[in-house]
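Re: [help] complex structure
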Amino acid sequence: MTRRILYPSILLVLFVLFWELMVWQFQVPHYILPAPSRIIRTLTVQQSLLLHHTFVTLEEIIVGFLLAFVVGVGLAFLMFQFPVLEKTFYPIVIGSQTIPVFAIAPLLVLWFGYGLSSKVVMAALIVFFPIVVNTLDGLKGADPDEVNLLRILKANRWQILWKVRVPSALPFIFSGCKIGISVSTIGAIIGEWVGSKEGLGYLMLHANAQLQISLIFASLIYLTILGVGLFYLVVLMERRAMPWKRFSEIR
Amino acid sequence: MGKKGASFPGNNKLSLREIKKSFSKDGSSLAVLLDISLSVRQGEFISILGPSGCGKSTLFNVVVGLVQRDGGIISIDNREVENGLGDVAYMQQKDLLFPWRTLLQNVLLGPEISGGVHEEARSEALELMTRVGLRGFEGNYPAELSMGMRQRAALVRTLLFHKDILLLDEPFGALDAMTRSVMQHILLGLWMDYRKTILLVTHDVEEALLLSDRIYVLTARPAAVKGEVSVDITRPRKVTDLSFVDLKGVLLDMLQGEIERVFA
Ligand SMILES: Nc1ncnc2c1ncn2[C@@H]1O[C@H](COP(=O)(O)OP(=O)(O)OP(=O)(O)O)[C@@H](O)[C@H]1O
Ligand SMILES: [Mg+2]
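Output below.
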């Protein structure tokens, strides 16, 4: 455990030191590549600015993710219960993935405006797919013998759904959520690039235009922390929701 | 001893008459149950012995109603029924404990499905768990337990289905010899106290002889009843008893012919 943190940390520190040295050695101008020390200064000086834009992006991601989760899990359940719906929606869901979100981002901004909604929709569109597909796979993947056990007890279809299918699907749903939360930042940032007045994506564009390259790096650091933090939040919820997994992993 | 066909005296808990089943696979049809007739009295312990793949599990699946039969009659308490769904408890070789439930939650599955877990069911569950040596593990997940413990929990769950008839499909097949012998002991004790009617599928001639009142021997696939053996030895039985050794020879002879047919 300590090594898992120690080794990458050492590498990172060495890399940053090397970077600092190279910038000083070759006198690289800060508007091309700022030294780490300069980035750290920006992080402290511009902290409140960075925090403000981080919270904007965070809000977009969380609302977008929740929207995708509710719609995605809901649609997966409906598709599972009603095969007609699966036949209707599944090909469309798959087909929609061939359209890059980048391509429709300008349209979304046109329709939903420069504010929160267009970024929420963008993030939701990206998150939606892994959640639907994983949830549906999970519901279908329940052990038929376990389902039969309930049938022998004359359980009704709701009992079979809640007592076997949903718990069997949980690991899949969480896999979908982990993939979803990892890609959700992409949606939000692209949305902000295409048209916005706030958010880390906006801040990066703005800094770029002003040649404040250290602010871009600072934004990237906040974005990384945001992404990693959200991912671990999902992992934490996964552990809370499935306490039995701890033991299966030991086996 | 060893007589062919089953008799149908008046009072049977469960009787099967001329049960037939074939599966269609890629257009061709695979006959699995040719003609199975057998009867079990209330409180009787019956074993079913048959070569591997002859259709023993299929027979249980038909009785429970998980598989549609092609023909034949199933009667429970002398009344013809569609199938045994809701009237029999079924335990498979896999323990099928739900990994997301603690042991106590697992064994209480039956009461939970049929209208809620009451204090009565809980205390009965705890009592049974104590009896099979699972006390103190109520809150553990199946993944934390040994195969033997899981199988005991599955047995308790099956008892708590509160059915008169138990179908046990090679419940101890995956266990080592020592654990298996402990489980046989526990099962025998529970059967005597709860007066259940038990049908046990097994590969193991000694297991059948140790436990059952009567043994049905099935032919190789497609399965029919090859013969029926009454085990009139007082319990507890010992594998070294003379009559035990005699019957074992008889059963092995009956099975031998069928096993040769499988590999012919
Ligand atoms: N649902 C099914 N569809 C098609 N074939 C099946 C099905 N279930 C069982 N069979 C076939 O029926 C035959 C008997 O299977 P079954 O599992 O009943 O045998 P068994 O006597 O229980 O074997 P074992 O001793 O290995 O448990 C096998 O050849 C199997 O492939
Ligand atoms: Mg079998």
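Residues 1-8 of chain B have pLDDT under 50 and may be disordered.
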